[in-house]
Fold:
Amino acid sequence: MHIWFGKELIDKWYKYAEVQQIDSVRGKIHVEVYRNEDPTKPTLVFSHGIAGYARVLLPFIVPLFEKGYNIIAPDLEGFGYNERKKGDFCWDEHLINLRDTVEYARANFKGKVYLGGGSMGGPLAYATDARYNCADGLVCWCLWDFRDKEFVRATSTTGRVTPVFIPLLKLASILFGRLTIHTTRIVPYRDLTTDPNFNTMLLQDPHSGNTISLRGALSLFIQAKPDLAHELYEKPVLVCQPKDDKMTEARFTKRIFDKLGSERKRYVDFTGGHYPLEKSTYIKWAEAVDKFIKENE
Structure:
């Protein structure tokens, strides 16, 4: 963070962030709360994806917090500063984590609560609200559907052999479900950002998503299917997508955006890779989210 975004961003974490623990499906999870003075302002519950954890989202969080919004960023099961085994999770547990974080937001703030996330956090946010109907709208940085076979082939290491790989993974999960492997055996991280040094450093971070359990990997293939078809979703949705994203290409996000049934949906393009490294991108992001929320207040 110092190298790419400057010491000022870290200083603001110490100034703004409040670390809490909330109860969830397998015990307490770590959440970072950014509490503005006005509790009636809207709150964004914003989730990390498969590579990161709450604190890695600082470039997203700080510019939006400084526009007056409350923000809560959880460490999902198996990630970040949670005390249980790193990399051991399943998709359905993450949906419960996000539902519980939304409930925490409603108990602590009085305004609307939007649910969102970056990278895989986008599909997680959609699937959570599809199942639990807990949010007032969605704010997604990337949004795709794991039922899209073309997406799975393009983004996983298993590619076209996925149909053969899944039965083997099911058997391995029955025998060794909590055994962890390097996440890059399932999802390549080479295009996480445009800087290989950043990607390497994140993979070396003990709090990041550098490992995944066999049951976790299996859950991405068999549980990551939303309970509500995108065509039936009617709440406000902001979908943001980097045009130059080589990890999860824009065409997959546009495909889902076009399906969304909401009449209050907005799509915003950004420059840069999957996880942008330019401060200007996050300023534009905060402006887009601010405009979207104000339009739906």
Summary: The chain is about 40% helix and 20% strand. The chain has a mean pLDDT of 95. Residues 91-108 form the longest helix (18 residues).
